[in-house]
Design a protein that fits this description.
- The structure holds two protein chains of two kinds.
- Chain A is α/β, with parallel strands linked by helices.
- Chain A has two domains: 214 residues, P-loop containing nucleotide triphosphate hydrolases (Rossmann fold); 72 residues, Alpha-Beta Plaits, CATH 3.30.70.
- Chain A is 34% helix and 29% strand.
- Chain A contains eleven helices and 13 strands.
- In chain A, the strands form three sheets. Chain A has a six-stranded mixed sheet, with helices on both faces. In chain A, strands 11-12-10-13 form a four-stranded antiparallel sheet, sandwiched between helices. A three-stranded antiparallel sheet of chain A has the order 2-1-4, covered by helices on one side.
- The radius of gyration of chain A is 21 Å and the shape is globular.
- By secondary structure, chain B is an all-alpha fold.
- Helix content of chain B is 81%, strand content 0%.
- Chain B is built from eleven helices and no strands.
- Classes of the chains: A alpha/beta, B mainly alpha.
- At the A-B interface, strand 5 and helix 3 of A face helix 1, helix 5 and helix 6 of B.
- Chain B: Keywords: Membrane, Transmembrane, Transmembrane helix.
């Protein structure tokens, strides 16, 4: 399968701060990739580089086989609306809807109209006076109606009510089925979105901690719950991503798979073992501070814990 | 090329700001000029007298009123439009070229408007009562051959200078425009230090086309500066 996005050893520094550190990520054409991680993990920086709005300090990025920066033919195939998007002074909704098709060769008036109606985006209010949810709605209209072969959606849910989120999901899946494209979606609402994802990338501190097919994510980590001493004993030699303790009971999210012998021992000692959900994995990785040894161990598997 | 045209259309998308606000401002200046003329009239000055004509034609109100708006328009054409242009898929190169093209179109539009109003003003013997709004020295005193280049180059200078200040802000934040302003002040001061001893001779030899050359230099420097500042700029 051809990759729509290919990032190799991409590093982005801003002065003393490293926003992305040697990132290797590929996203196959026609897939929906969830880009997950805490605030400040590097998600928007990564999308910005993919969209040609920024350049890496080092490394290589290709979108649809070409470098995106200042590349008009690639940029015409891309859509990226950042979560804090600024609009020209005095802009109202009709200004956006009037100009966007000029830059988006695959623009769909029907999709735009349905979303504007469904989100109830005000027509007469200046965009700079929009609420957070209304700004997200405009960003979703731009992202989905463009039908860009590579669509980057940066925190599209911010401020959206439950009805609007359902509309977004419905339109995304419906239009994606009719017009397949590559979509990268960053979000903190992991549970609500995970059913969309074919692929998952988890960033933390500017590094890729997981880059995997969505169906393989449940094999990456497990949770172990039980008496604190039992859980501590069973996880003594494992990479524990996070722990939570309540009244003598402990729940640990542990990297890797539990072998049969350990699973039997856990059951005998009254501990409960379950695969970590994507939500638990993202939260645990966000808490975890990896030791160099952990990194070395998991780099061999193509993922980092 | 298509992204350049799309960028021009992106700027033109603010139709009221680009096409109507200059008309509103011109109308306001006309009203204020008439009111001021009425004050002079009531104070004993006679329309059509040499003193009246001399005083009226010295009124540069139209320039002051338009200048501040045009610099603002130049600033906003980059400060808030550049991030949105990148989002839509414009390259920095096409944005810079498209913005310069839009500025030239806007300059031609304003020049044409003022030229028409100036012709009408003279054709009606200054609105039938001797009021001077556009037939003023700063716009060529009724000479359309002077008015057109004066307004075109003046508007283009205001828009591009506004644009380069905004580009410095996009690139470096608040320090950017401050650095440009400081640099301009230093260059002007240094030039004055050099030419002041010969100021009298220079004033005597002054030709109007010198201003045109200065405007062209400012436009070229501002446009080049805009490109150099926006090329590595990161929108965050």
């Amino acid at each position: 399968m051809t990759n729509a996005i290919d990032m190799q050893a991409v590093t982005r520094r801003f002065g003393e701060s490293t926003a992305l550190d040697a990132v290797d990520v590929t996203v196959p054409e026609g897939s929906i990739c969830g880009l997950l991680g805490r605030n400040g993990a590097g998600k928007t920086t990564m999308m910005s580089i993919i969209a040609g709005q920024d350049r890496p300090s080092s490394g290589r990025v290709e979108v649809l086989g070409q470098e995106p920066f200042e590349n008009e033919s690639v940029l015409a195939m891309l859509s990226f609306v950042r979560d804090n998007q600024r609009y020209p002074d005095d802009y109202r909704l009709h200004h956006v809807l009037r100009i966007a098709p000029d830059f988006a060769p695959h623009w769909s008036e029907e999709v735009a109209a349905e979303l504007v109606d469904g989100f109830r985006i005000p027509a007469r209010t200046p965009i700079k006076k929009f609420s957070r949810g209304q700004l997200s709605s405009v960003a979703i209209v731009l992202g989905l109606a463009s039908r860009a072969p590579v669509t980057l959606l940066d925190e599209p849910y911010l401020g959206l009510d439950v009805t609007a989120r359902a509309l977004f999901h419905d339109m995304l899946l419906r239009d994606y089925a009719a017009h397949p494209r590559t979509i990268v979606l960053s979000t903190h609402l992991v549970q609500e979105s995970e059913a969309l994802f074919d692929r998952v990338v988890i960033l933390d501190g500017g590094t890729v901690r997981v880059s995997s097919e969505a169906e393989d994510v449940r094999d990456l980590a497990f949770t172990l719950s039980g008496a604190t001493d039992v859980v501590q004993g069973l996880t003594a030699r494992s990479t524990v991503l996070s722990t939570h303790t309540v009244a003598g009971l402990m729940s640990a999210t542990v990297w890797g798979a539990l072998d049969d012998e350990s699973r039997t021992t856990a059951r005998d000692l009254g501990a409960r073992v379950a695969p970590a959900s994507l939500h638990e994995l993202v939260a645990a990785i966000g808490e975890h501070r990896p030791e160099p040894a952990d990194l070395a161990l998991h780099e061999k598997k193509g993922v980092r814990a | 090329m298509s992204a350049v045209i799309s960028t021009v259309k992106l700027h033109m998308n603010r139709r009221e700001t680009t096409f109507l606000v200059p008309l509103y401002i011109t109308g306001m200046v006309a009203v204020f000029s008439v009111l001021i003329s009425l004050v002079f009239w009531r104070s004993g000055s006679q329309p059509g007298s040499a003193e009246w004509i001399q005083g009226s034609q010295s009124n540069p109100g139209i320039v002051y009123a338009l200048l501040s708006f045009l610099v603002y328009l130049g600033v906003s054409s980059v400060a808030t439009t550049f991030p949105f242009a990148l989002t839509l898929g414009a390259t920095r190169r096409s944005f810079t070229v498209g913005t310069l093209l839009w500025a030239a179109i806007t300059s031609a539009y304003v020049a044409a408007i003022l030229a028409v109003l100036s012709v009408v003003e003279r054709a009606t013997d200054h609105w039938f009562v001797g009021f001077y709004v556009f037939d003023v020295y700063v716009l060529g005193a009724g000479d359309i051959g002077r008015l057109l280049p004066i307004v075109f180059l003046g508007v283009l200078t205001a828009l591009t200078v506004g644009g380069v200040f905004a580009s410095a802000w996009v690139r470096f934040g608040a320090r950017g425009p401050q650095l440009i302003a400081a640099g301009v002040v230093i260059v002007i001061a240094a030039a004055l230090i050099v030419v002041v001893p010969a100021a009298a001779e220079i004033a005597e030899a002054f030709q109007l086309w010198w201003l045109a050359v200065a405007a062209l230099a400012a436009i070229a420097l501002s446009s080049t500066g805009t490109w150099l500042l926006l090329r590595p700029a990161v929108v965050r």
